[in-house]
Write a structure and sequence with these properties.
Layout: E1 8-10, E2 13-15, E3 19-21, H1 38-49, E4 54-61, E5 73-74, H2 81-93, E6 97-103, E7 116-117, E8 131-132, H3 135-155, E9 159-164, H4 169-174, H5 184-187, H6 191-203, E10 210-215, H7 226-239, E11 243-247, H8 268-278, E12 282-284, H9 291-299, E13 305-307, H10 310-314, H11 318-326
Parallel strand pairs: 3-4, 3-13, 4-5, 4-6, 6-9, 7-8, 9-10, 10-11, 11-12, 12-13
Antiparallel strand pairs: 1-2
Helix pairs in contact: 1-2, 2-3, 3-6, 6-7, 7-8
Bound molecules: flavin mononucleotide.
Residues 22-25, 58-59, 101, 163, 165-166, 213, 247, 285-289, 308-311 line the site of flavin mononucleotide (FMN).
Length: 340
């Protein structure tokens, strides 16, 4: 019977446990150059010291106007690679593996003078109206994702996550609410996401897994639900996604009728449904910071990996404490043994 501290292997990614730190924007690039700094180094390396199996570096954008804010990480330039390599090497030295989330914010790029999107539909009444990308620009955007993934591989990451959730650019393409295009990228809502996955895979070693984060459900009126997301996830699986990271929402103003739960494990049923329908490994996320609950999600085979976000903002040693509470064996840094 698997548990939170069972090892996990997919392709050549071998994890010492099932605990994942999900991507969490730090909005801390003070120089606005997209380059990771001391904050990012401390933030990620401390979670590796804390026993996390896999750390996913926050949303890292493929072009300057793909950032939510100018304080986000980027991978549009080779100059952004060395600071990430330094983080990767340090994380590895503490026994954890590390992935990076590659993204574009699309119409949710708050600091862009003119955000871009599939269609010229603003996020809400306070947002700028985005400019619809031309067909050639969409193809160019796929290439920007390709180059960012190339740089991430060069930086030494163990896996790549593509951000197809939370109302950012890829999500904007596969949602009928935000994609009103009449070209090939509107007739086929998953074409852009599929091309991004294919381009990423072409840059990745064959044995490196690609993780696809999706919002499995939208919370606005007229948005898609789990049946539709199972269908588009199938298209992404066929394009090369190896693991699905199941989140939800983020597409627009939340309508009262569709508000997401704030209770523990609120997105686990979505992860389980994608896992069952597609027979793919999935990562669950959302209010899973009670170790007993996180352990049950693995034991009940609802997900293959469990992510703890805000729980790890509170406590970088979440994993070590979980092992103690669940009475599982895990390596504790010798300097900290007295604490456990
Ligand atoms: C400060 C913060 C920043 C976040 N940034 C990202 C991000 O860069 N990419 C992403 O996909 N999700 C992001 N999220 C969502 C988390 O990855 C996670 O899905 C969410 O916090 C729910 O998990 P939790 O209940 O364990 O915190 C962020 C969440 C927080 C709290």
């Amino acid at each position: 019977m698997e548990n939170l501290f069972s090892t996990y292997k997919i392709k050549n990614l071998e994890l010492k446990n099932r605990v994942v730190m999900p991507p969490m924007c730090q909005y801390s690039v003070e120089k606005k150059d997209g380059i990771a700094n001391e904050w990012h180094y401390q933030h990620y390396v401390s979670r590796a010291v804390g026993g996390t199996g896999l750390i996913i570096v926050e949303m890292t954008d493929v072009e300057p106007d793909g950032r939510i804010t100018d304080y986000d990480l980027g991978l549009w330039s080779d100059e952004q690679v060395p600071a990430l390599t330094r983080i990767v090497d340090a994380v590895h030295s503490h026994g954890a593996k590390v992935a990076i989330q590659i993204a574009h914010a699309g119409r949710k790029a708050e600091d862009a003078a003119e955000p871009v999107a599939p269609s010229a539909i603003p996020f809400d009444e306070n947002s700028k109206t985005p400019r619809a990308l031309t067909t050639d620009e969409v193809k160019g955007m796929v290439e920007k994702f390709r180059l960012a993934v190339r740089r991430a591989v060069k930086a030494g990451f163990d896996a790549i996550e593509i951000h197809g959730a939370h109302g950012y650019l890829i999500h904007q393409f596969h949602s009928p609410l935000t994609n009103k295009r009449d070209d090939e990228y509107g007739q086929d809502l998953t074409k852009f996401g599929r091309e991004v996955i294919e381009a990423a895979k072409a840059e990745m070693p064959a044995d490196m897994p690609l993780i696809m984060r999706i919002s499995a459900k939208e919370y606005v009126e007229g948005g898609y639900g789990i049946e539709e997301s199972i269908e588009f996830a199938k298209a992404y699986k066929d394009a090369g996604a190896d693991v699905f990271d199941i989140s939800s929402g983020g597409e627009g103003q939340i309508a009262a009728w569709g508000r997401p739960g704030t209770h523990a494990a609120y997105q686990v049923p979505l992860a389980r449904q994608i896992k069952e329908a597609l027979q793919v490994p999935v990562m669950a996320v959302g209010r899973l910071d009670d170790p007993t609950l996180a352990n049950a999600v693995i034991g009940n085979e609802e997900a293959d990996l469990v992510q703890v976000g805000r729980g790890m903002l509170r406590n970088p040693y979440w994993t070590l404490e979980a092992a103690k509470q669940l009475r599982k064996e895990t390596d504790v840094p010798k300097q900290y043994e007295a604490g456990f």
